Amino acid sequence: MTPLEDFDLDRTIVRDSGAGTRPFGVVSERNGVPRTSDRVTEVRGVRVSVRTGPRAGRMKVYVGKRYLGTVDARSATTRWHGVKLKVPADEARTGRLRFVPVTKRPVKVRFVWPIG
User: Fold this and answer.
1) Tens digit of pLDDT for each residue in 79-116?
2) Pairing of strands 45-52, 93-95
3) For residues 83 and 47, is the Cβ–Cβ distance under 8 A?
4) Rounded to an integer, what distance in angstroms lies between the CA atom of residue 105 and that of residue 116?
């Protein structure tokens, strides 16, 4: 799988074919809700790389209006960590992937893999 990794300048839009510079978006109440620039089709899950640590927060993940799950990036150790959220195949959806903050503490997202 090739991750969606190219975030735009304000770090709220995730685009296809990443730049390879390892940019990241910040999911927090202070900026817009990061989302994919285009709709993804027949998605039944997502895998994201998040920066964990004691100062990290939580975020909800949606495809369109379908809630996939919550990512908790809080941890005693600081590192990039992969998290996978999936729903049954018959609940696959088409829409933009969105990352919505749950806490005031931010979540840093580096890579996004839609799962079909």
Assistant:
1) 999 999 999 888 899 999 999 999 999 999 988 999 98
2) unpaired
3) yes
4) 30
